[in-house]
Amino acid sequence: MSFLDKSTSRPAKSSKVRLYSSRFDPYSASLRYVLRAKGIDFEDCYINLQDKPEWYNDINPTGEIPCVECGDEVIPESMIIHDYLEAKFPQVKMQRTGDAYKWSKDRLFVTRFKQNVVPKITGCLKNPNDNVDDLLAKLKKVDEILGMRGTDYIGGDKPNYADYYLFAWVEVIPSLKAAHDLKIDIHNDKAYKNYFAWVFRMDKDKHIEQDRVDRKVNFQTRTEYLKTVKAGSPNMKVGL
Ligand SMILES: N[C@@H](CCC(=O)N[C@@H](CS)C(=O)NCC(=O)O)C(=O)O
């Protein structure tokens, strides 16, 4: 893993897939989980979002992470990257884990989650009191959808990209709660039964666990990181 800021030059081309990301970024985490599930060897390049290298604009003119580089091919936008990885490395399927109807429902789920729930999670980072009730209401909806699916995972009997996308975001919530001292206690609430059963299963997923080991991103380090965000000076290197 490397940390890149204004003072660093663009890394030389690699024979591996390279993920330009940020250590605690959920969009990037979902891609790492999928890369692992597909068995793809990849390297992490962490961009310092507070002090971005100028050359990063050549990679993504919007300046956003994540971005994937594979030889001469550079792809931004998390959902387009998911599609690119699926097309480029089709051996292990992470999207077509059922028929066309299931694929569409999964995509709809991820799209609506990104539109409706992600802004509540990021909103909680800055202004928890204005966002937490909405977030909890939306998680109830997620619970209903998981219940209606009736399978262990959105993917069916094993996780697919929609599971990894969802998990990469909701795994932030316990740290948000700790960093902002939020009084949320929904673990024993029946309205979240399916959701927590799913979280419990995902939490034991080996690709997610490997990510925690490789990057040392876990409840403690993420909480410390969110505290540095709250204090106005994000420190991407906490716990290393
Ligand atoms: N639509 C983009 C959103 C990515 C995004 O919001 N990235 C944030 C980090 S979570 C970012 O790069 N912010 C820094 C910046 O815009 O300068 C995607 O899905 O990849």
Automatic annotation (TrEMBL):
The keyword Oxidoreductase applies. InterPro entries: Glutathione-S-Trfase_C_sf, Glutathione_S-Trfase, Glutathione_S-Trfase_N, GST_C, GST_Omega/HSP26, Thioredoxin-like_sf. Residues 15-93 form the GST N-terminal domain. Pfam families: GST_C, GST_N_3. Keywords: Oxidoreductase. One of its GO terms (molecular function) is glutathione dehydrogenase (ascorbate) activity. GO terms for cellular component: cytoplasm. The keyword Oxidoreductase applies. GO terms for biological process: glutathione metabolic process. Belongs to the GST superfamily. Omega family. This is GST N-terminal domain-containing protein.
